[in-house]
Write a structure and sequence with these properties.
about 350 residues; alpha/beta; Nucleotidyltransferase, domain 5; 2 domains; five-stranded mixed β-sheet; 10 helices; 10 strands; globular
Amino acid sequence: MIVLGVESSCDETGLALYDTQRGLLAHALHSQIAMHQEYGGVVPELASRDHVRRAIPLLRQVFEQSGIAHGDIDAIAYTQGPGLAGALLVGASVACGLGLSLDKPVLGVHHLEGHLLSPLLSSNPPQFPFVALLVSGGHTQLMRVDGVGQYELLGETLDDAAGEAFDKSAKLLGLGYPGGPAISRLAEFGDPGVYQLPRPMLHSKNFDFSFSGLKTAVLTVVKNQTTNICEQDKANIARAFVDALVDVLVAKCMNALKHTGMKRLVIAGGVGANKQLREGLNAAAAKRRYQVFYPELEFCTDNGAMIAFAGAMRLQQHPEAAKRDYAFSVRPRWPLDEINT
């Protein structure tokens, strides 16, 4: 089965072809980071318009790379939600329009399920069941995963997502957009222990998160500076922030593994590429003889490959899920546990 995947939930346009026999055939991605940098964040209307410009050229690119014809595909999967409504509509219209023209069935895929399953695209994929940490700019959730479509929410952020806290704290330090990678790089030059920041909900008896207070603590430290902050001070604050956030994420993941009795942890989402988080998780897991699995770095951010793969996994279990009804809708808000089969 060959599935075309279309991703357009936010500011990356991704298309990919996945074959259940041969694996990933081709994928292409365009990031809008450069366009949004001057605004300090994603502008939804600009994002939607850029998806319109990029989708068809990327579509041509993946078919040229794969060497297969349009008619060779068996189905088309697209991100139905969650995400920016206008951006989602672009991908949905491209997928359904192409499906209509080729007489191929289409399937709406949950964006977070794509992230959740993306580590299975790696050369060392995890086996079910496992605990998953979905950690990105819009989401921070711990899930129990027993199989495709078998998800139990263990805990989630009560306010800011981890990636959002990264971006907002980076902005407070005068760093560029996207802030996550910038503050992470700066933290490498910081001295530990110079600033003490809170670890929100570190000792709570659940698996929920809260990062709004951590961001506020960074704001307080910055405001308390009596002179302009020098680069070393910025690095020290960045180090304190990253250490605090990583401590919380690592502790919650270890607690979730202990609670469920599982030995495998999967990390998915853009923040999963963070160097300090990976180091912290690997060290904590090694002490407890747990295994940690990550997507390939190119698949940590939004991409079409994860949507094509998730669509293929769904269709292998439920071939009837793909429809030839090309009237489409999107779901900007869509809890992952609502898609359980």
